[in-house]
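user: can you give me the structure for this one chain? tokens are fine.
assistant: on it. calling the predictor now.
[tool input]
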Amino acid sequence: MHRAAWLSMVVVAVACGVRTQAPSSGTPSELVDIGPDLAPVPFAPGSLARTFHAGATLTYRIEPKGKPPVLQTTEFVATTETGATMRDTTTDLDGTPQGEEKTATSTWTELESHAHFPREGTRIDAATVVVPAGRFEAWRYVLSQTRDGRVTTTRMWFGKELPGPPVKLVQGVDGEPVLTMSLVRTERP
């Protein structure tokens, strides 16, 4: 399964022994309900396949605490009705490669599942977010977990008109930011 850095942080934040805060009192009606135990998702099943075709790219600025920021680009190398092959490249801000390119193939269902979060403890509201790629009307998801006495909070803004990974992600531990990810550009053929 394709686990780009911008998605793996979301998966780790949710999958590791989550004890969550109380859920919000309501759920916006435009989200897609996928079952009683999972929070509504920010895009409809099948929307990734309709949005991303061969040649599409997403570039994010990733800023981990205590490390230099990097740019990560995911290119959709090939797509089918069932999935996609993607190539991830990471560079410093001057364009110097950082690490090896990674290529992997995933089904659309696997990629869509990265937006599955437990219903209990997931707060969702509508918000506007500005990132280098522009201004987005978004669904803001807030997830919190307590582990070893430390609270990790992950805030994700999913663009309402751009299915896929969040256009912005901020993760903090005990109120201190440890990771920020912002969409810099997207290209779709």
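assistant: here you go. The beta strands are 57-64, 70-79, 83-91, 102-107, 123-131, 134-147, 150-159, 168-173, 176-187. The longest helix spans residues 5-15.
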